[in-house]
């Protein structure tokens, strides 16, 4: 089944188990919407990275997450999957290069490398992943 638009919005209490759950849900939603496997895997990796950042570094008792895709272009750019995470923390995010023996610190480096675009507005981090489709 190929839908013109898919969207998921969810708010949750910060906990590391949510990372795998959202990764799975986003993948299932996009696969059902007709998105190709390679794109879905990239989206799942980026969901993991920015949700982990929100859970670990955010503040507040809720994290808000959304993933959307609109083939028609009536929302985010046609052909892009949009991932958004609001962690309640107004701090700037830095892309850094982790050392080879560091166990953490590669999240935003991966987002920067794999996303078409990304940014931070207030307490919300967003990124887009191209599907290769255009309206």
UniProtKB/TrEMBL annotation:
Keywords carried by this UniProt record: Kinase, Serine/threonine-protein kinase, Transferase
Cross-referenced Pfam families: HATPase_c_2
Span of domain Histidine kinase/HSP90-like ATPase: 15-118
InterPro entries: Anti-sigma-factor_SerPK, HATPase_C_sf, HATPase_dom
GO MF term set: protein serine/threonine kinase activity
The protein, known as: Histidine kinase/HSP90-like ATPase domain-containing protein
Lineage: Bacteria, Bacillati, Actinomycetota, Actinomycetes, Kitasatosporales
């Amino acid at each position: 089944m190929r839908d013109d638009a898919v969207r998921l919005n969810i708010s949750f209490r910060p906990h590391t188990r949510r990372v795998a759950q959202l990764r799975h849900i986003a993948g299932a939603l996009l696969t059902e919407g007709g998105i190709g496997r390679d794109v879905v895997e990239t989206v799942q990796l980026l969901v993991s990275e920015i949700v982990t950042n929100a859970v670990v570094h955010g503040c507040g008792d809720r994290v808000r997450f959304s993933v959307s895709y609109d083939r028609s272009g009536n929302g985010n750019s046609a052909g892009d999957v949009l991932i958004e995470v609001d962690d309640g923390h107004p701090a700037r995010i830095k892309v850094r290069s982790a050392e080879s023996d560091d166990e953490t610190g590669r999240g935003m480096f991966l987002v920067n490398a794999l996303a078409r675009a990304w940014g931070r507005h207030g307490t919300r981090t967003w990124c887009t992943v191209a599907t290769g489709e255009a309206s």
